[in-house]
Amino acid sequence: MSDFFSVWTLIRVSGFLAFYFMTLSLAIGLFSSFSIMKKKKARFLSYHQTSGWYGLLTILFHILLIWQDQYVPYSLRELFVPFMAKNEPLFSGLGTLSFYLFLIVIGSSDFFIKKMGVKKWKKIHFAVIPAWIFMLVHGLAIGTDSSEPWALLIYLLSSSFILVLLFMRIVESIMLHQPIGRNNTHK
Question: How far, rounded to the nearest angstrom, does the alpha carbon of residue 181 sit from its chain's CA centroid?
Fold first, then answer.
């Protein structure tokens, strides 16, 4: 097998691809939640769900490749039980927790939303934020390319973009729930 298609190369590529898809899904989800996007929300929902599923499938591929890796072997137990890996247990565990949180969010969104109701689903859906953060920390800490300038740039730009969208969403939420110009300190 050529170096381009080696297990090690595919592990690295699938990790970055999973990060890309999950970042895209999170960004689309945040963007579509702005009040000005109400009329276009249905269009964005499809992109949001599709990129999330691509990300989840890419994570599964990443896990399968890690299991097959001969250089840094992982057992199934190390892959699926958080913090049990011999190699970088903390950061491997964050990757495992990230996978489970993404799985819960995507599974609940596509299969159980009607059974749980929107209110409970929204609470579960917020788990995507720690899932994405765990994925980011996992990639930065044990990704073999993470110290490369191009990889750091990807992480920096992605994180900055998500933080800006999240900040804007929080500000909008505060502004919509608290009327502008109303001062509660004076009667």
Answer: 37
- 155 — pLDDT class (breaks 50, 70, 90): very high
Domain boundaries, the chain: 3-177
pLDDT tens per residue, range 45-69? 999 999 999 999 999 999 999 999 9
Interacting residues of 121 by C-beta distance below 8 A, sequence separation 6+: 108, 109, 112, 113
In this prediction the pTM is 0.88
Q: How far apart, in Å, do the first and last CA atoms of the chain sit?
A: 76
CA distances (Å), origin 51, targets 36, 45, 129: 22, 10, 16
Tell me how far apart the alpha carbons of residues 46 and 41 are, in angstroms, rounded to a whole number. 9
- The DSSP result for 101-147, as a single string, is HHHHHHHIIIIIHHHH-HHHHHHHHTTHHHHHHHHHHHHHHH-TTTT
Query: What architecture does CATH give domain 3-177?
Result: Up-down Bundle (1.20)
pLDDT class of 2 with cuts at 50, 70, 90: low
Question: How far is CA 111 from each of CA 2, 79, 93, 98, rounded to the nearest angstrom?
Answer: 40, 25, 26, 19
Residues with Cβ within 8 Å of 31's Cβ and at least 6 positions away in sequence, in order, are 37, 44, 165
